[in-house]
Please model this.
Amino acid sequence: MRKVVSGLFISLDGVVESPDKWQFNNFDEDMGVAMASHIAAEDAILLGRVTYQEWAPYWPTSSDEPYASHINNTTKYVVSTTLDKVEWKNSTLIKKNLAQEIGKLRQQPGKNIGVAGSPTLARFLLQNDLLDELILMVHPVVVGSGKRLFKDGDGLKRMKLVSSKTTRTGVAILTYQPV
Model:
């Protein structure tokens, strides 16, 4: 069975929003290797509505490799109850029955199903036992404000650390699985 895996850039204070504003001075060769490994292990991507709407205009014309080729050529499933259509190449809209649809995707042959960006979707998947792995790339920076991965009131969720690595620039790459 395929796994659903989310990887997120996150600050020390839990901010996941707009990492382009605070993470690139820490992006080193070690992170590049980790990212390449992550994308090589997936052949489908789940996107939330906000990430889809931010990325769809950017990535089709981007030359930021290797991710541009990967995201543009990989099958994407956009999770949204408000969108009526998706137009980015290889995209399919999931409007309802998310647990059932993810169950179907897991049963198909293939590699991991990655969750790209989409912290609200990642949090939902984790809280509803639909996420198999959570990879946090914890950057040595306090952002101060912005969307956080977890919110007050999220239910208790125990996790097991299955892998950890620190990059040359001090980013802790932590891989967790739900217990």
Notes: The chain has a mean pLDDT of 92.
